[in-house]
Amino acid sequence: MKTAVLLPCYNEATSIAKVVADYRALLPEADIYVYDNNSTDGSADIARQAGAIVAPEYRQGKGFVVRSMFRDVEADAYLMVDADDTYEASDVVALLDDVESGRADMVVGDRLSGSYFTENKRAFHNAGNRIVRWLINHIFESDITDVMTGARAFSRLYVKTYPAFSEGFETETEMTIHALDKDFLVTQHPVGYRDRQEGSQSKLDTIPDGLRVLKTIFALFKDHRPLLFFGLASALIFLVGFGLFLIPLDEFITTGQVTRFPTLIVAVSLFVLSLLSGVCGVIVDSIRKQTRLFFEIELTRVAGEKRRP
Question: CA torsion angle for 153, 154, 156, 157 (degrees, to 10)?
């Protein structure tokens, strides 16, 4: 199988040469691509000298880098890992086994079951990983141990049918939800993790990027599970409306009159909003099913291209 190693890169001059060399030694037949995202520290030149195929991505953001890599690079199996040398290369390369054997379309390199929480010195990052993992697993009824890992292996079928919408670090969350929603084969294996080298700075801005991730989860929840999303909204609005409705109802039962018309009007309005939310859920869920039909047709087309000589 033809294998491609994909390395998103932004100002990783302290580590990029070692990362390229590590994967070159472990996968001598693979093509190693470094997509440079406007680095200002000479990362692109260093990667080129180390023997990588270097391509520029001028739109700033990891999501744009992933979009270009997935569209441009042709291979049978893909290995994507951050270029900051925080992942144990031998563990990451082992992720390819499930893709090459057909057991998985996406293999998750699980940092969180190993040394991540002791190696990573950023407390907010640790808390954010736990929150995102909990939300994804409860919303999408899954058991993914590391939603935001930067080490993954993919099949060609996944890569060529992945709709990249995100612009920044929320792309990892989007990739995970896409795999779960479209019933791709997903496996996960622990990978060793170490903190960044001295002089290497994380590009993740904890609070803004964390809020973007949560916004992405909210949007994908609405788009991928619309019946549940709008159903919950409908139930919540109905309960609030029912609580308000009890006030004039109690007054009517007690006195035979209703004087709290504003409360009654608000309650009835909430009942109408609840009904509309439920109807929206049914309509959007129907549209989602039609979209899923077209996606399955596209999967068949891409799979046919792979079999074609």
Answer: 170
Cα separation, 272 vs 27, whole angstroms:
61
- 62 phi/psi in degrees, rounded to 5: -65, -35
Tokens encoding 204: 């993740």
3-state SS track over the chain = CCEEEEEEECCCCCCHHHHHHHHHHHCCCCEEEEEECCCCCCHHHHHHHCCCEEEECCCCCHHHHHHHHHHHCCCCEEEECCCCCCECHHHHHCCHHHHHCCCCCEEEEECCCCCHHHHCCCHHHHHHHHHHHHHHHHHCCCCCCCCCCCCEEEEHHHHCCCCCCCCCCCHHHHHHHHHHHCCCCEEEEECCECCCCCCCCCCCCHHHHHHHHHHHHHHHHHHHCHHHHHHHHHHHHHHHHHHHHHHHHHHHHHHCCCCCHHHHHHHHHHHHHHHHHHHHHHHHHHHHHHHHHHHHHHHHHHHHHHHCC
pTM of the model: 0.80
pLDDT in tens, 199-213: 555 556 666 767 777
- 178 contact partners, CB below 8 Å, separation of at least 6: 162, 163, 184
Asked if 28 contacts 131 with a C-beta cutoff of 8 angstroms, the reply is no
User: What pLDDT, in 10s, does the model give residues 24-77?
Assistant: 999 999 999 999 999 999 999 999 999 999 999 999 999 999 999 999 999 999
**Residue 281, amino acid:** G
What does the alpha-carbon distance between residue 246 and residue 251 come to, in Å, rounded to a whole number?
8
The type of residue at 230 is F
Q: Given CA atoms 76, 77, 82, 88 in this order, what sign does their dihedral have?
A: negative
Task: Find out whether 204 and 120 touch, Cβ atoms under 8 Å.
Answer: no
